[in-house]
Design brief:
By secondary structure, the chain is mainly α. Among the domains are: about 90 residues, no CATH class; about 70 residues, no CATH class; about 90 residues. It contains 28 helices and 5 strands. Helix 13 runs parallel beside helix 14, helix 17 packs parallel to helix 19 and helix 20 packs parallel to helix 21. It comes from Cladocopium goreaui. InterPro entries: DUF4116, Ubiquitin-like_domsf.
């Protein structure tokens, strides 16, 4: 896209860009000419363009430099109290479109200080409302009844709805307001607050706005189910009667798991209901009542549904072998929540590392146990990192690890990281583990010959073997 800018001195500047707003162009002009963005006015035909407008290909603009006094006023409006600044400026600036636009955007009440010609100019008022919807409050009755002006106001600030007369509040207008600010529902007419679509739009934006719905809607069960599905947080604003309703609470929790904390305590302590929530993965662990986590039957069922429930169980049940076994069989990471005694229980730890090799990290007393470590590295070679030093220096164990995952080489003992057989097995498993090879091995002609024989045709190997000594030292 190409845009031409001509100055009053006759200079022509050409800018090529992809997708710019006028602000982007002004920044480019500043860099090309040194004229500050605030000083620039860009005219297309007889109309001044505004900073949020998108440029079009082939656009021809005229650059006019603002008077320094106007620039100073605009800067003061930006940095200081707009109304005080405006009260002190020369009278002609109250008829200046740009000065008054900046002032009203900062303080809506400044529109009352504008020259009469601007206050009666609909296009100017529309531009102002798009910058500050609350200006609607200070307009005359005719403009407050103008649908387009009202829509511009509430699109910018939903709270501007309070300045729209009830007779002018169309459904589309109120929807625009509550979609911008849900709490604007409080300023809607009675008929709009009884409209399900309007209330749902408000609640979706802000759950608290449910309190402004009509009483009929607040006791309409079908509507409440829709509301909870729209924003589960709204459950907190329902009457106690509805907080006991399983279907309504389920709808709320399905949309927002944390909504369970707003449900009636009796429902939060109901085993079948809470287990049903776990089944749907629609429940945050901390919100069922504490007493449930001291019920062995409940914990057993919860763990079978969702292994993470194990961490919320009471200390006694986290030391229960049957419950712990069920949890680690579903997901080995839950071993970390088991009691210290159970994390030293070989049968439970084996079940955990079979499912999740890194569970070995949670069993420090069994990190020297060959069977446990071997089970872990067979599933994930890099779990070698959690093994005791004696096993990380055991060649058979390390070979098992690097064959499963070449990058496990980095967790082998110092001596085995220099063992050519171990290193070659790591490379066979994952050639990207080349970066783990110690530089001293690259000094060995026999090792390099074996690497060339096994992987010589691979461009990465050739590149790596030809890399500088400095790079190899950095890799160490």
């Amino acid at each position: 896209m190409e845009v031409q800018v001509t100055t009053l001195a006759g200079d022509c500047l050409t800018f090529r860009c992809k997708r710019w707003t006028l602000r982007d162009l002004k920044d480019a002009i500043k860099r090309a000419t040194g004229i500050r963005m605030r000083e620039q006015r860009l005219i297309s035909g007889a109309q001044e363009m505004h900073e949020d407008e998108l440029l079009t290909d082939g656009l021809q603009l005229t650059l006019i430099r603002r008077p320094l006094e106007q620039v100073r006023i605009l800067e003061d409006l930006e940095d200081r109290d707009a109304k005080r600044v405006l009260q002190k400026v020369p009278e002609q600036y109250r008829a200046d479109r740009e000065v008054m636009l900046a002032a009203a955007a900062s303080d809506a009440s400044c529109i009352s200080l504008a020259d009469k010609t601007l206050r009666e100019c609909r296009d100017f008022i529309l531009a102002v409302l798009k910058r500050n919807g609350m200006v609607l409050k200070f307009l005359d009755a005719a403009m407050q009844d103008d649908p387009e002006l009202c829509l511009a106001a509430v699109n910018q600030n939903g709270y501007a709805l309070q300045h729209v007369a009830a007779r002018c509040q169309s459904k589309s207008l109120v929807l625009a307001a509550v979609s911008t600010d849900g709490e604007a529902l409080q300023f809607a007419s009675q008929s709009q607050r009884a409209d399900q679509e309007v209330v749902l739009a408000a609640v979706e934006q802000y759950s608290w706005s449910f309190q402004y719905a009509t009483e009929d809607l607040k006791f309409n069960r079908e509507f409440l189910l829709l509301t909870m599905a729209c924003n589960g947080r709204a459950l907190q604003h329902l009457s106690d009667e509805w907080k006991k309703d399983p279907d309504i609470v389920l709808a709320a929790v399905s949309e927002f798991p944390g909504a369970l904390r707003f449900a009636d305590p009796e429902l939060r302590s109901c085993k079948p209901f809470v287990l049903a929530l776990f089944q749907r993965r629609a429940c945050t662990l901390k919100y069922p009542v504490e007493e449930l986590w001291e019920d062995r039957d409940f914990v057993l069922q919860a763990v079978q549904i969702q292994s993470s429930a194990f961490q919320a169980a009471s200390a006694a049940f986290r030391g229960d072998p049957e419950i712990a076994m069920l949890a680690v069989q579903r997901h080995g990471y839950t071993l970390q929540f088991a009691s210290t005694e159970l994390r030293a229980e070989k049968k439970i730890v084996l079940a955990a590392v079979r499912q999740y090799a890194s569970a070995l990290a949670s069993a420090p007393k069994l990190q020297e146990d060959r069977e446990v470590v071997e089970t872990a590295v067979r599933r994930n070679g890099c779990s070698l990192r959690y093994a005791a030093q004696t096993l990380r220096e055991d060649k058979e164990m390390v070979l098992l690890a690097v064959r499963q995952q070449g990058f496990a080489l980095q967790f082998a003992g110092e001596r085995l990281q220099l063992d050519q057989e171990v290193v070659l097995e790591a490379l066979r498993s994952d050639l990207s583990s080349l970066e783990l090879v110690r530089s001293s091995l690259w000094q060995d002609a026999g090792f390099k010959a074996q690497v060339r024989r096994l992987f010589g045709d691979d461009p990465d190997v050739a590149t790596f073997m030809g890399c500088s000594v400095k790079r190899r030292r950095l890799l160490e």
